[in-house]
Amino acid sequence: MLSVTNLTLSYGGRVLLQNVSFDLEPGCIMGLVAPNGYGKTTLLKAMANIKAARVTGAIAVDDLPANQVARRRARVFYAPGEGTLLYPGMTVGDHLAMTRKLWRSQSSIDDVARACRVDGFLSKRVRACSQGMRQQLTLAIAYMTGARYLLLDEPMNALDPTNVQLNSAIMRSLAQRGTGIIMSSHILDNVDQLSDKILFVKDKGLVLFGPSAPAAPASTASPLSSASASTAASPAHAAPSAGAHFASGPACASKAIDIYNELYL
Ligand SMILES: Nc1ncnc2c1ncn2[C@@H]1O[C@H](COP(=O)(O)OP(=O)(O)OP(=O)(O)O)[C@@H](O)[C@H]1O
């Protein structure tokens, strides 16, 4: 379990998230949704121990003690968007080879390249790749690491519909084998299809929609209002009474776009 406890994130004096807590379980795909600038990237980086912001609180990686930095790092991989992970002068194949070596991956370059459909441009330098190709490569690198927890920043951006479906299937298959995935996204229909749970950033807190949250009270006319209030009143854990929005599994009773509109519009 990747556990976030009482996390506060700020830049200068500006607090983005205050005292938030949640767990990313192995085998779970969690969507992370909020408008631009609400702190999704900052949260994912903090979870990967990439300290861009000021961070207080605790992040636990399984049962590993905090001082076992290398072992913790080996279980968590953050994949940024927009190809910023990549080296423009290196080829696609070089990136996979480097990742395989650094992460001591058991996967073969050919297998990952074929599965992620980057095998057709392995010898292309990143600077000559399209935006979508760079994103395909970023995801191929993430899968190659074999990390138990993948933190994916807008992973479906720039991908064509075929590649969105391909990567959705790969993520689902990884989750079935125990990988925990959290992905920020503005593509809400994909978040609906893929996520077991969805975290929304709201009022510097988190609102969780997912099957493990307790069911909303029957008398609640709008489960959202109860969810928001619950989170605001209880910063300790992002498990407000919002579970009625989801059936179990990826199928979602309420669409993310409806929840989004109710939270932010
Ligand atoms: N290095 C930094 N120094 C100061 N402020 C920053 C820094 N990085 C990000 N911010 C600010 O923190 C806020 C949250 O940024 P972040 O990138 O985490 O948002 P986001 O939810 O991922 O946005 P988007 O959906 O646009 O990608 C923004 O207001 C941004 O300007």
Automatic annotation (TrEMBL):
Offer one Pfam family short name for this entry: ABC_tran
Keyword Cell cycle recorded = no
A GO MF annotation of the entry reads: ATP hydrolysis activity
**Which residue range or ranges hold the ABC transporter domain?**
2-228
Tell me the PROSITE patterns matching this sequence: ABC_TRANSPORTER_2
Q: Does the keyword Nucleotide-binding apply?
A: yes
Which PANTHER family does this entry report, sorted A to Z? SKFA PEPTIDE EXPORT ATP-BINDING PROTEIN SKFE
Q: What is this protein called?
A: ABC transporter domain-containing protein
Q: Which organism is it from?
A: Collinsella tanakaei YIT 12063
